[in-house]
Amino acid sequence: MIKLAGRIWVETENGKLLGHGRIELLERVHACGSLRQAALQMEMSYKRAWDLIGDMNNQFTVPLTISTRGGKGGGNAVVTPKGLAVIAQYRELMQQFEQFLAETKTDISL
Amino acid sequence: MIKLAGRIWVETENGKLLGHGRIELLERVHACGSLRQAALQMEMSYKRAWDLIGDMNNQFTVPLTISTRGGKGGGNAVVTPKGLAVIAQYRELMQQFEQFLAETKTDISL
Prior knowledge:
Two copies of one chain form a homodimer. The first copy, chain A, is an alpha+beta fold. Chain A has four helices and four strands. In chain A, 52% of the residues lie in helices and 20% in strands. In chain A, strand 3 and strand 4 form a beta hairpin. The radius of gyration of chain A is 17 Å and the shape is elongated. In chain A, 25% of the residues are buried. At the A-B interface, strand 1 and helix 4 of A face strand 1 and helix 4 of B.
């Protein structure tokens, strides 16, 4: 069976801003309140998660997460209202893309 | 400036069937009549190009290219009518995707 597939992301002139992985990271931080835990769940290094979050927070004028550093377990992190809005807006884009993939007909036959 | 970006591909239950690189390879084979030249132009190994073409020809019931093996320069290759049709059908999908990317509005702001 022939199927159209793909992925989307949001970028600025400074490169990638939001993609599936970054949004999943934000969602997991929101769910568990810890960047370290979120990274673990995604089998991502803490450094990588920290860099991704830092890159997003640098590119947005309002931070998407706020971290309280240090302490056992690496401190806590909360997703800000702006962060929650961005998650919802990205999910909306994903939904439209899924719809595009499902509705787009192809004449390609094997 | 916030911009939606992405890529699409066509897959079957056996994995990827067509993507941007495979279509570019077919187009270059069609333009220069040689798989080796096409691979060179794309800075792709001849083996990789051969494998990609072989995978496509295996998955389609009609081959997309026909090769005359051997000889100096690795022999010639021609894209079949089926191959040309597939290129055109994929380009049509690409065009619809470009349109989707251009038309889809996002509320995300920095």
